[in-house]
Write a structure and sequence with these properties.
The chain is α/β, with parallel strands linked by helices. The protein has one domain: Nucleotidyltransferase, domain 5, CATH 3.30.420. 35% of the residues lie in helices and 16% in strands. Helix 1 packs antiparallel against helix 3. The longest helix is centred in the middle third of the chain and has 23 residues.
Length: 254
């Protein structure tokens, strides 16, 4: 079983969808590694572990997190430090514990604003196809976790028919395996789809990865000034390059 945490980031030009996959047998070690980082962030910046970290907040023009935080981050450098350290923590977890595979999709948006929702749905659909192909190759099943705040009336990532495994068959599932894409979704297990990101450090990490990729592909002036547009390059061992072998970072840009 592999657990995928889905993160999304968008600009006017691009839609990015990220699936941070963690193998079930490595989940405890990876989760604890990331949680340790959050505890350090709480000690250094007084950012509670239960607060959601989002790239757009950490690198906002005024350099602050939402007002609900006990202490606002007063400099962009602090937000940058949190983001960069988080990506390094994920990369170190990959070569220490293993069992991490990150799949990324980056699609160019339609120039028409009314098509933005469709663009986002297309990126998610392509992400699902790539995840399914990866699972089929590894002969695994998947469990998806998504951010409740990103729901926006989009359907949860659908799953196909469950294999005849007594444990897996007990999991609720959706979809008939015939819709969308050419790859049959027979490796996906459907799970309770949405969580509050503040309750899940790995879900937040997926969001940070997607934001780092967005800033690499379509950087803001702020990201370039802080050199954050280079941050995605920190990730090496955790990237699932089989998802798109022709791309040096394994990013699907179809």
């Amino acid at each position: 079983m592999r657990i995928y945490y889905v993160g999304e980031s968008r600009s006017r030009s691009l839609s990015v969808a990220t699936a941070l996959g963690v193998d079930g047998e490595h989940w405890n070690a990876v989760s604890e590694h990331v949680l340790d980082w959050r505890r350090v962030m709480e000690d250094e910046f007084n950012v509670p572990t239960g607060r959601t970290l989002r790239g757009a907040d950490l690198l906002s023009p005024n350099g602050s997190l939402p007002r609900a935080l006990r202490r606002r981050l007063t400099t962009l450098e602090e937000g940058l430090d949190i983001m960069m350290t988080g990506l390094r923590v994920l990369e170190s977890a990959g070569w220490r514990q293993g069992g991490i595979g990150v799949i990324n999709v980056c699609r160019r948006n339609s120039p028409f604003r009314q098509h933005r929702r469709r663009d986002r749905a297309a990126a998610r659909e392509r992400l699902l196809e790539l995840v399914n192909a990866s699972l089929a190759e590894d002969r695994r099943y998947a469990f998806f976790v998504e951010d409740e705040a990103e729901r926006d009336d989009l359907p949860a990532l659908a799953a196909g028919p469950v294999h005849r495994d007594p444990v897996l068959a007990a999991c609720p599932y959706a979809g008939d395996g015939e819709s969308g894409g050419e790859i049959r979704r027979d490796t996906l297990v459907y799970a309770p789809p949405y969580r509050v990101a503040g309750d899940d450090e790995l879900l937040q990490m997926a969001g940070l990865v997607s934001y780092a990729l967005l800033q690499q592909e379509d950087p803001t002036a702020m990201s370039e000034a802080l050199n954050f547009h280079l941050a995605f390059g920190i990730l090496k061992s955790v990237l699932d390059r089989h998802a798109c072998p022709h791309d040096p970072q394994g990013v699907d840009r179809s």
